[in-house]
């Protein structure tokens, strides 16, 4: 009978069990690490978004409350972004799904340049994802509003700090304060402008001056109502349909545009489909030597406009001869616009006619400020020249 010391027996037994325990422990630890890694990755991929807040830093992510779940009803959330001094904020929507409405009256996201009384860069709803939005300074405000009814998944957006007036495929725009200058679509003139871009140029002149804008080259996706890609020009510092001078697309440069006051906002928007060459425009400040209110009519040929025009410009319009050649769409007289419609109201003031028209068809939009309420489109026009066609209610 052999004898083995107790110590050796324990030692031998320990060595026979240890490799198995070590393997089990290794497998368990590996699974634990994988589990914890996945949990951390999930938490990184799906952050929790709160309703509003003050946000600082060079970059970050903003989302609606509960994203990617349904956002809550009857909510108003305000986010205030601040990036370092000397830089601007660039905001890009990665996803948007809010109750759809043509005028975004119910659920919407507003984006402003600045925190207080800033320029509104746009209002968005539905599922259309706009291009990148750029502030004019180092602050931006985002406001989301929801009503009591239909909701969606909300939105997800990223912001970053950039150098002012930086150009590239992703964004454009800025604040223009020099006495003269130019603005252009991204990629001009090397290639077409990119899809999904929003650019806003805010032009500011001294208090006693107005702004003239001319387009040297112009090629934006054509549509009778400029619904897809377009340039819109507004009096003042914000995107406001009541102050819109005109909305332009196609391949014909718009007529020169004059501001009423010392500020003008030019917005360019491209959707996510067709693109074109783009444009380059020039602006310059002009002394405010003549009134920008409606002037007495001339005794020459027809002209009409939707906005107050300086005296010399109005007289020139009224002196042009009417060429009834070409198609209605391309060259019907020398008018800036051609429409058919029903006159809702017509008032004579100072020899000019102020009329509200319910539109039947638009052949040439020019600088009309067309507004839509439901299925009915309307516009307000001012007829300046005596020999313009008579306007009577109901015609």
TrEMBL record:
It holds the Pfam family NTR. One of its GO terms (cellular component) is extracellular region. Disulfide bonds join 172-199. Residues 318-395 form the NTR domain. GO terms for molecular function: collagen binding; peptidase activator activity. Its main location: secreted. The keyword Glycoprotein applies. Keywords: Disulfide bond, Glycoprotein, Repeat, Secreted, Signal. InterPro entries: CUB_dom (IPR000859), Netrin_domain (IPR001134), Netrin_module_non-TIMP (IPR018933), Sperma_CUB_dom_sf (IPR035914), TIMP-like_OB-fold (IPR008993). Residues 51-162, 172-286 form the CUB domain. It comes from the Eukaryota. Coiled coil: none annotated. It is found in: Secreted. This is Procollagen C-endopeptidase enhancer 2b. It comes from Salmo trutta (Brown trout).
């Amino acid at each position: 009978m052999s004898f083995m010391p107790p110590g050796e027996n324990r030692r031998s037994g320990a060595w026979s069990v240890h490799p198995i325990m070590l393997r089990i422990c290794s497998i368990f630890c590996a699974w634990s690490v994988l589990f914890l890694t996945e949990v951390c990755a999930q938490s990184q991929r799906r952050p929790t978004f709160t309703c509003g807040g003050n946000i600082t830093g060079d970059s970050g992510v903003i989302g609606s409350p509960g994203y990617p779940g349904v956002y809550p009803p009857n909510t108003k959330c305000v986010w205030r972004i601040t990036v370092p001094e000397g830089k601007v904020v660039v905001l890009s929507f990665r996803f948007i799904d809010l109750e759809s409405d043509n005028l975004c009256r119910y659920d919407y996201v507003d984006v402003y340049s600045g925190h207080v009384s800033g320029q509104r860069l746009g209002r968005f709803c539905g599922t259309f994802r706009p291009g990148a939005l750029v502030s004019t300074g180092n602050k931006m405000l985002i406001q989301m509003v929801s009503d009591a009814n239909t909701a969606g998944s909300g939105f997800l957006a990223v912001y970053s700090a950039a150098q002012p007036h930086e150009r590239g495929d992703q964004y454009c725009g800025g604040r223009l304060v020099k006495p003269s200058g130019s603005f252009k679509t991204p990629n001009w003139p090397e290639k077409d402008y990119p899809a999904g871009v929003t650019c806003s140029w805010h032009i500011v002149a001294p208090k006693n001056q107005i702004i003239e804008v001319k387009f040297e080259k112009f090629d934006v996706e054509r549509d009778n109502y400029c619904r897809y890609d377009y340039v819109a020009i507004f009096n003042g510092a914000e995107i406001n349909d009541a102050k819109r001078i005109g909305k332009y697309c196609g391949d014909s440069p718009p007529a020169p545009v004059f501001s009423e006051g010392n500020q003008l906002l030019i917005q360019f928007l491209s959707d996510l489909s067709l693109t074109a060459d783009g444009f380059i425009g020039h602006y310059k400040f002009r002394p405010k030597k003549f009134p920008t209110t409606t002037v007495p009519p001339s005794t020459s040929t027809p002209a009409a406009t939707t906005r107050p025009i300086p005296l010399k410009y109005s007289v020139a319009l009224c002196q042009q001869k009417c060429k009834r050649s070409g198609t209605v769409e391309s060259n019907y007289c020398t008018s800036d616009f051609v429409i058919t419609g029903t006159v809702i109201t017509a008032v004579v003031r100072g020899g000019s006619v102020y009329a509200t028209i319910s539109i039947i068809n638009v052949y040439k939009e020019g600088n009309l400020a067309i507004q839509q309420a439901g299925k009915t489109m309307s516009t307000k026009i001012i007829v300046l020249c005596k020999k313009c066609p008579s306007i009577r209610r109901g015609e």
